[in-house]
Design a protein that fits this description.
Chain A has 122 residues and is mainly β. With 433 residues, chain B is an alpha+beta fold. Classes of the chains: A mainly beta (122), B alpha+beta (433). Strand 1 of chain A pairs parallel with strand 14 of chain B.
């Protein structure tokens, strides 16, 4: 029995093996040029064991172009640099800040550096 | 023995890393409002406390081992935050910790959800103390979880070093036992009950003959230890003397039996509902069975009324069925468990609990066919694989046998205070703002 699978769980290895024409038996011209497709998981979370996804509710940080329903990709493994967006904790509450030139002037605790903002476009 | 003997350097070969109050720490990562505050985590069905952070442990007037319903008001009064256990999240955080440990040593033995041994054999060219602090700091930075690190020549000593790292504040959660003097000091410091692997029964017997500290234990004659505590005691004795005899196990031993026994949320008189619960538990254990690539030969089912009850009539019984071919196919296991259940069920009782247990586990590649049983093994395995993939991705029992019915939440653990599955479910992400 062959089980037809569709949508999200389609097997990728079959999709990306070199195509051979069932009609002629000749391999596709792309045979030697096949590459794995872009995997957002690989591109957007570089340090997987240190990466967390966090959803934003409300427009408190719209000045940083972070809007309601956006998902932040936060990488805890990075050292924050000047002007980085970072997730911090101040008096027990999460806050998004831009890292100031003098890092030590703030009284908050760094939680992680924001690397990407996934914006909800609908 | 000359006193300069004490200054011999020891080769630290094993690092023991464990997370501090792991479950509570996992919860606190995502709840900065609870940083520095008492947090406890409850057992399955919210029955009792299974983990407490140090702030909660400091509230010594709270009887932490009492049933939760009895002490709930005390917890609330003391502003202790309690969580139902969220094993999905703890398991995922544990995986992160183990992955990070994998960057420190090629050989990591995952000992439990929050403990691991690292082989640091031959790391003599690096500053082992700094290495220990690196582990601690990197795990904390990457995951937010605090850990302790103990490094010593043997596993049992590493476990002891880990304890010292945690209990003695000046060590700041990292302790390296790298001289003979430090080993002796550790043995003088540790109570006999602190030694990994010495159970309560042996502690009592040892105390009765005047053995109170670890040092007293290693000074016992080997012949006595061997006679009274078997090979297990002998290994401990040798390990504490710095002779390594516990092997490194990077591949876990497959379980010999897999089972589950959970009480229903209510008392159930009719067979139909009990069948559903039974099928649900089989679904759970069969998943574990496939994960370790084993097949089960026997299915045991046991049924109980509530023996604490004084008003109900009491009955319990059990039955074992043999599978025609050892299998890990959920559907085949459910069908046979159902036969067993029919064999023991009697009407007229209000049942409290059904237990299922799979035994006779063999590696799935060792399964031999049966002349009279033509099982379409390949397609069944394929179906099970797809079922597992779907359930892994979209959540438990997204796809399952219809036998489990539609009321599965009733068989699931009562988890009233469970935190969101922040790291595995897109819909349950941490929300801020």
């Amino acid at each position: 029995m062959e089980i037809e699978v569709s949508g999200k769980i389609r097997k990728t290895e079959e999709r990306h093996s070199a195509e051979v024409s069932t009609q002629t038996g000749f391999p596709s011209a792309a045979t030697h040029y096949m590459e794995a497709p872009i995997d957002l998981n690989e591109e957007l979370s570089i340090h997987k064991d240190a990466t967390f996804y966090i959803r934003v509710k409300g427009d408190a940080w719209k000045d940083f172009m972070i809007l309601n329903k956006d998902v932040l990709i936060v990488d805890r493994s990075l050292t924050p640099h000047f002007e980085d967006l970072a997730l911090v904790v101040e008096e027990g509450v999460f806050k998004v800040i831009r890292i100031p030139f003098d890092k030590h002037q703030d009284t908050c605790t760094l939680w992680g550096v924001i690397t990407y903002i996934i914006h909800y476009a609908r | 023995m000359g006193s300069d003997y004490l200054y011999y350097t020891l080769r630290p070969m094993i690092a023991m890393v464990d997370c501090n109050s792991f479950y509570a720490s996992c919860e606190q990562i995502f709840r900065p409002d609870l940083w520095g505050r008492p947090v406890v985590v409850l057992s399955n069905n919210d029955g009792c406390i299974i983990a407490a952070n140090k702030e909660a442990k400091a509230l010594t007037h709270i009887p932490m081992f009492e049933a939760v319903y009895k002490i709930k008001h005390i917890l609330i009064k003391n502003k202790v935050t309690f969580f139902s256990s969220n094993y999905t999240m703890y398991g995922e955080m544990s995986q992160r910790v183990m992955n990070i440990l994998g960057t420190f040593s090629p050989c990591v033995e995952v000992y439990s959800i929050d403990e691991a041994f690292l082989d640091v054999h031959g790391f003599s060219h690096i500053d082992i103390q700094a290495y220990g602090f690196d582990i601690k700091e990197r795990i904390y930075q990457y995951t937010g979880l605090p850990v302790g690190v103990g490094i010593a020549p043997t596993k049992v000593l590493a476990k002891l070093a880990n304890r010292m790292a945690k209990k003695i504040p000046i060590y700041d959660h990292v302790y390296v036992m790298d001289t003979e003097e430090k080993r002796i000091e550790a043995l003088q410091w540790a109570d006999i009950g602190d030694i990994w692997g010495i159970g309560r029964k042996h502690v009592k017997r040892l105390q009765a003959i005047g053995v109170f500290k670890a040092i007293d234990f290693v000074n016992l004659p080997l012949a006595w230890v061997r006679k009274e505590m078997t090979i297990v005691g002998e290994r401990l004795w040798k390990e504490l003397r710095g002779e390594s005899c516990l092997e490194f196990m990077t591949v876990p031993n497959p379980k010999k039996a897999i089972g589950t026994a959970k009480s229903f949320g209510q008392k159930l008189p009719d067979l139909g509902r009990i069948e559903e619960a039974c099928a649900y538990y089989i679904t759970e254990v069969a998943e574990v069975l496939r994960a370790q690539k084993s097949c089960a030969t026997y299915v045991h089912v046991a049924l109980y009324t509530n023996y604490h009850s004084t008003i109900d009539k009491q009955y319990s019984n059990r039955m074992t069925v043999t599978m025609p071919i050892p299998t890990n196919d959920t559907f085949a296991l459910i069908a046979h468990a159902r036969k067993a259940l029919h064999g023991i069920y009697k009407s007229g009782y209000r049942y409290k609990k059904v237990a299922v247990n799979l035994t006779g586990l063999i590696p799935q590649e060792h399964v031999q066919g049966n002349l009279f049983e033509q099982q379409s093994k390949i397609t069944d395995a394929k179906i099970m694989k797809i079922v597992d993939t779907l359930n892994m991705k979209f959540g438990k029992t997204t796809v399952s046998s219809a036998m489990i019915g539609t009321r599965i939440h009733e068989w699931e653990l009562i988890k009233r205070e469970r935190s969101p599955r922040y790291t595995t479910q897109w819909r349950e992400l941490l929300e801020i703002g």
